[in-house]
Description:
This protein has 3 helices and 12 strands. It is an alpha+beta fold. The chain has one domain: Beta-galactosidase, Chain A, domain 5, CATH 2.70.98.
Amino acid sequence: xxxNQNRTFHIQGIAxxxxxxxTPIHSDKCSSLTDINVRVKEEAEGWxxxxxxxxxxxxxxxxxxxxxxxxxxxxxxxxxxxxxSLSKDTFWNYSGRRVAITNIVSCAESVKKTIYPLNLxxxxxxxxxxxxxxxxxxxxxxxxxxxxxxxxxxxxxFEVKQGKVYAIEGEMEEExxxxxxxIKNGLAFPGEK
Length: 193
């Protein structure tokens, strides 16, 4: 990942396969692991950060790919609270007078999410997730945390799929939620105004 002093979030994608092998999706090893070529573009915006990805099946066969996206809100402190939304693919984080929301737009067959504390228990759960390719449900946590999306993709030969993970920081929950909805709608319906 590139280093940027203006980043508010740290976002990382990790590809995983059934042989319990995994690698960052932006590394050269990813395509040899999966036969899927991945291009990533990270952006720091005034409102937060985004991680745009495009994946292309380079083989003549149908391929499956499971990808974990990890998001850490860098401004979160020990007094923070992280909660996953039950109705949407969003996470909410509260720390001091700041609020953050994380969301994803993708064409994955399934999206699962969890939030792990950044302590020994959370790191053990993350290690189990990587070894088994599944998430352990953890809906709320206090203090520093790591938000995790798990996306399951199925690719036809030479098929291309795109998506975006984005995270927004602000002071008012309603403004952050409205901006998130506008971004998600703009990504889902790019031709409409």
